[in-house]
Amino acid sequence: MLESELPFAYAGGSALNAVASWKGAAFAISLKVEVKVVEGKRIDNKLLRSVYEVFKEQVCDPGEVTFVVKSEVPPAGGLKSSSAVANAATLALFERCGMRPSPYYALKLSVEAAKRAGVTVTGAFDDAAASMLGGLVITDNKEMVVEERRPLEGLRAIVLPRGGRGLSYGEVAERLRLLKREFLKVYEMLKAGDLYGAMTLNGFLVAGALGYPQGPVLDALRAGALAASVSGNGPSYVALADRDKVEDVYEALSKHGRPVVAEVVNSPAYLP
Ligand SMILES: Nc1ncnc2c1ncn2[C@@H]1O[C@H](COP(=O)(O)OP(=O)(O)O)[C@@H](O)[C@H]1O
Ligand SMILES: O=C(O)C1=C[C@@H](OP(=O)(O)O)[C@@H](O)[C@H](O)C1
What we know:
This is Shikimate kinase. The protein is built from 9 helices and 9 strands. By secondary structure, the chain is an alpha+beta fold. The chain has 2 domains: 143 residues, Ribosomal Protein S5, domain 2; 111 residues, Alpha-Beta Plaits, CATH 3.30.70. Strands 1, 2, 3, 4, 5, 6, 7, 8 and 9 form a 9-stranded antiparallel beta sheet that branches. The chain is globular and about 55 Å long. The mean pLDDT is 96. Bound molecules: adenosine-5'-diphosphate and shikimate-3-phosphate. The site of shikimate-3-phosphate has 17 residues, from helix 4.
């Protein structure tokens, strides 16, 4: 577990993938991405370069710097690594400039950077909001509005981290949009308060559309998880469980890889 005082943001899991309908829901988990700003001339990573450019244009000139990233989640795996990297890098630049932003302002800059870098379909405002603000968020990614935010008390997330998604963003979007009407039903369930049903249904829709196995979702449920889903565009999975079911769900997901147990985090990312 990363324990330092460096600027950080949280990874997260999905309850509703926003790609088809622009309505999304995600929650923060206690796996972190930390970013350190150091003197340097080159920023090779396209997402980090966009964060730097957006910040320089809209906030202050941080000078000649580069970034050192430490991540507890795999990239391109659905666990919100891109959002956490952009959030933590944005917060690190605020610190460099000796400024203390509101979380909401930092969040908007970070989403703008992710859009510019082309690492999202909708801007992934849902993921970035969960990563920056903590808790469960339900968002409208087109309007960049947090419709609801609430803590998820006492829950554990059992994560099956997988990286290296094979599908392009274009392929992901084309397939998920075929199920737009169904994703809107998931949104209605969420708004009606049925988080667990919504999240699991989201899991089956994403798995079906993108060709991921349904086994991890079923096995997690069989072991007593409250909900389970493919996270984001996959290929990672995430299950939510009460404390007394964590071991059983961990065992069940161990058949499919190396799960990690995390807390659901209800507090915001680091703020300078
Ligand atoms: N640890 C990291 N360091 C630098 N860039 C990262 C890191 N993790 C993710 N990214 C950026 O985010 C992109 C992956 O975004 P995305 O496909 O949305 O994955 P995820 O679902 O994990 O957020 C990568 O192509 C890269 O540009
Ligand atoms: O690109 C996007 O707009 C999105 C990507 C997905 O997340 P990941 O980037 O974690 O796969 C999805 O869950 C999110 O609602 C929207």
